[in-house]
Structure formats: structure tokens, C-alpha cells
Specification:
Blueprint: E1 3-11, H1 28-39, E2 46-49, E3 58-68, H2 74-84, E4 89-96, E5 109-117, E6 127-128, H3 136-143, E7 148-151, E8 166-176, H4 177-180, E9 192-198, H5 205-217, H6 223-229, E10 251-257, E11 260-263, E12 266-269, H7 273-279, E13 294-295
Parallel strand pairs: 3-10, 5-6, 6-13
Antiparallel strand pairs: 1-3, 1-4, 2-3, 5-9, 5-10, 7-8, 8-9, 11-12
Helix pairs in contact: 3-5
Length: 300
Amino acid sequence: MGKFYIGHLCYKGTDYYGWQKQADVPTIQETLFNTFRELYPLGRIDVKATSRTDRNVHALAQVVKFLLPRRVDAEEVRLKINEALPSNLHFSQLERINKSFKVTYLSLYKEYVYFFSPEKVPFNFVGHIDDPRFDLEKVKEAAKLYCGKHDFTYFQHRSQVGGDMVRNILESKIVKASEIFNEGPFQDYPIYCFFVRGEGFLKQMVRLMMGTLIKCGIGECSLDDIKTALLGKSDDCDYRKPGYIVPGHGLFLKHIEFPEVFSGDQLRRVVDKELYKKCFPQFELWLDDEPQSFDIIDLD
């Protein structure tokens, strides 16, 4: 009889065309499936994730549930899988989970971070904002506007959600990267994060939110423009998107929070956040490429 497992998966998204399996291009889901199949050639295999990240988007802690055709000790299978996976994919935590646990529906909230800097820095996942007009304090003020329930019609791209574009953002702010990742490689550089926590997100929503903040910071979008856009569509207003979609390789899925669930007769929290912190790879997956920040501003 097979066994279900759940774990935190870190990956460098620049090598893949997103999470979900597609024809003729490498994806994270397909890479995992093929790796599991090589290790376990007989029996059913299934792979699901809580969030479907886009092309080039990274994950510090994607939550993945998968079925293997054999019962194996969780730590044993984690080590075995990591050895077989490409170096840009790594399970930092793994445990057994009940079949009934719905990894795609039960999350309480998700956290994303987008890295940027007003200077060139030696990290290729940090967007460089090369514009003397950029006003960081104004951007900090603008980021707060996203908090609460809003219609994010103008902050998504072709989301297929049956017309409901309302999302609840629990926290939205601009902070120094070193304040969030105090053990990361950011201590000596002026690197900032757009940090956002929400109950759910639309397609490319975080990237459009970030692009809007940049437009606001360089004076091409006002705070009032953002407030108006967050009202959503109106018969009296043919408003357009105030921002643009920033490149995916500055965006990281940081954390996904789940409620406590019964495991046997014990109530506990799966994919424990504290254990995840102890296993955190400290950006080792992202430091082996040519160290060069990318241009984040779209002036077209």
C-alpha cells in the first residue's frame, strides 16, 4: 500500500516554466514526478502543491503533498529524494500525512517576498531600480494601501476564478531584507523586500502589485490611482492597470500557513514553521549563478 508525504520544497524557479506540468518544457511538478518514478518504478505516484508558481518564480517553502507506492521512513525518503533531484530543488522538511489532507485548499495564508534595491548588488534575484526619481518612503506608504479586502481586478492577469477578484491581504509592507532574513546574505547591502501576506492571490497578482509600487515610486502612478484601482471595475470608470508585471525571478514564495489538524488522535500543526526555520537553506540554492542584479523598471 502506498503512503502520502508532505514537505517544504525549496526551488530556484529560473530553471523551470513554473510549477504545473506543461507539454515540452521543464516544470517543477514534472521534475518531481519523473524523479519519484525513477526511484519507485512500480505503482501509483501523485504530486500536488499548495501554490502554482509562475515561470522563474522561486520558493523557499512550497508545500508539496505526494503519494509514493511504498511505505518508507520520512527522513529516509527525504534524503533519498534530495540525492536524486537536480541541485535546484531541495526538500528541507518531510513527514507522513493522512490521505484526506487537502494541500490545495486548507492553507490559512501565503507569504511572498519580492527583492529589490536602488543599487546594483551581487545577487541575480534582486531587482535593480535604476531611477533617481524613486522615492522609497512613498513606496512604503503605497504598500500599506493593499491591506484589507479589495477588488484586485487591475492587479491580476487572466485569472480564471469565475469573476471573483476580491482578495483579503493581511499584511503588506516594504522592509529591509535583513529584517526578514537575519541569517541570509543581505547584511551588507541596501536590499529591500516587498512582503505581502494574504489568504489567497490571483494570477501574477504579487508581480503586478510590485510593478504598481515601482510606478508609484518613480512618480508615474499616484496613491490615489492605487486607491481607485483597488475599487475594481465600475460602469462609470474605464480604469486601466496602474502598474506592470515585474520579472518573475525577483519573487519568492516564502511561507504557507496551515491550521492544526488531527494526526491520529493528536492535534498538531503540519509542516511545522519552527522546524522549517531550523532547516532553512539560507539561499544556498540561489548563490551559484553569475552574481548580477536585473533591471526591474519597465519604461515602455
